[in-house]
Amino acid sequence: MRYAIERYFGGRDGEVADLVLSIQNGEAGLTLTVDEQPDLLDIKASYDRGGFWVATLDGKIVGTIGLLRYAKRGALKKFFVAKDHKGGGI
């Protein structure tokens, strides 16, 4: 499998949110909603001072990671990989 890692500039927020929520709720057993994670409602604006990247396979988003900047520091957020792709080289 050949994955592509791409900087995310918007347009697929729903697909990103679906992946994140499926992992949070389905795999981790949480009960989170997209409304509780406002960064998922407008990813481009939320991560404009850091960045957001997606891993894709055949055009489907299978992984995500975001970077938020805080002064001279940063915080990684939304680091998720679809279950079928963990350990696959993303």
TrEMBL record:
Domain of life where this protein originates: Bacteria
Record Gene3D superfamilies: 3.40.630.30
Protein name: N-acetyltransferase domain-containing protein
CDD domains on file: NAT_SF (cd04301)
Domain spans labelled N-acetyltransferase: 9-90
Pfam families (UniProt xref): Acetyltransf_1
Signal peptide, first to last residue: none
